[in-house]
């Protein structure tokens, strides 16, 4: 009777065909997804135009000398109130300064202040909402009642009060607009914190002995950032308009520094005879605000779907 033998040698299994082709398939799926997203964007001409406008204005802010080599502060009394034309695309003002150069060079201040304002509102509002939602009790009641008081006052009045206390200047305008946007960030952060704190993984982390600050930073905060960042994108357009409004009232950059809000204010006395003095800087401001809002709505829609 022949003895049966058992082969105990270890053989390395051959990779399955699906595993061999996993990496190329994944790359193909990524390329197909990128093509779908690109076609989706191209089917929205308004969004494409908004992106182009914002990229152009960002280029103005980063390198104004490349787009407008003329000095925005140089007066030329021989060419005052020239209408828009080949020599001066936006015309000239009452001192003969080139309005196109002033608009381009003013993009830096006009965009920097809203970005700083939204960043300030985002950080301060998120901190207040996180503390209120996480601590609860009298801390929650005290913080949210203060937020409710700020919400009861129009944002422009809050900004005016703050900038009046701090003084004139672009930095103070950015701080004022940022503090006015704090209540919105605080409320949405608190609501998201209360939602996340009830999730099983947060309760499991707390029950396993993880300290509360660690739970907030590693489990809660990353899961509330989506709605908060969407709100920040929406607030940016409002901040651009609010900074320009304070500049229009004379609280922002002081003459002769070019800034969109102050430029619109300078031309209001000449609107009847020299329409381009106010209209063209105002149209630039409106176009940038609409573009920022259009992109923000698109980002928010993609996050919610």
TrEMBL record:
Record-linked Pfam families: BPD_transp_1
Keyword field contains Ligase: no
Keywords: Cell membrane, Membrane, Transmembrane, Transmembrane helix, Transport
Highest rank taxon of the organism: Bacteria
Domain ABC transmembrane type-1 residue range list: 107-296
Compartments in which it is found: Cell membrane
Residue numbers spanned by region Disordered: 1-26
Residue stretches spanning the membrane: 47-67, 115-139, 151-180, 228-254, 274-296
Lipid bilayer topology: Multi-pass membrane protein
Family of this protein: Belongs to the binding-protein-dependent transport system permease family.
Protein name: ABC transporter permease
Organism listed in the record: Streptacidiphilus cavernicola
């Amino acid at each position: 009777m022949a003895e049966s033998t058992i082969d105990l040698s270890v053989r390395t299994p051959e990779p399955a065909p699906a595993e061999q082709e996993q990496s190329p398939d994944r790359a193909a799926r990524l390329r197909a997804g990128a093509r779908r997203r690109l076609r989706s964007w191209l089917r929205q001409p308004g969004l494409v135009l908004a992106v182009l406008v914002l990229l152009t204005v960002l280029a103005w802010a980063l390198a104004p000398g490349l787009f407008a080599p003329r000095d925005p502060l140089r007066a030329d009394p021989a060419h005052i109130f020239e209408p828009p034309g080949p020599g001066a695309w936006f015309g000239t003002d009452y001192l003969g300064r080139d309005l196109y150069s002033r608009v381009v060079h003013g993009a830096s201040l006009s965009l920097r202040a809203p970005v700083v304002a939204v960043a300030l509102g985002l950080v301060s509002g998120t901190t207040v909402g996180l503390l209120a939602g996480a601590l609860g009790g009298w801390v929650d009641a005290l913080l949210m009642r203060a937020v409710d008081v700020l919400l009861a006052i129009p944002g422009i009045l809050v900004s005016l009060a703050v900038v009046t206390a701090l003084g004139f200047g672009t930095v103070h305008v950015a701080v004022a607009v940022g503090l006015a946007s704090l209540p919105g960030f605080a409320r949405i952060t608190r609501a998201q914190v209360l939602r996340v704190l009830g999730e099983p993984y947060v309760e499991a982390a707390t029950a396993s002995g993880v300290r509360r600050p660690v739970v907030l930073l590693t489990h809660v905060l990353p899961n509330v950032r989506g709605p908060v960042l969407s709100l920040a994108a929406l607030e940016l357009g409002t901040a651009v308009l609010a900074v320009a409004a304070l500049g229009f009232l004379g609280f922002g950059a002081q003459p002769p520094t070019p800034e969109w809000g102050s430029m619109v204010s300078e031309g209001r006395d000449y609107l009847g005879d020299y329409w381009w003095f106010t209209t063209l800087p105002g149209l630039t401001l409106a176009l940038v605000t609409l573009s920022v809002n259009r992109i923000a709505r698109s980002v928010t829609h993609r996050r919610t779907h």
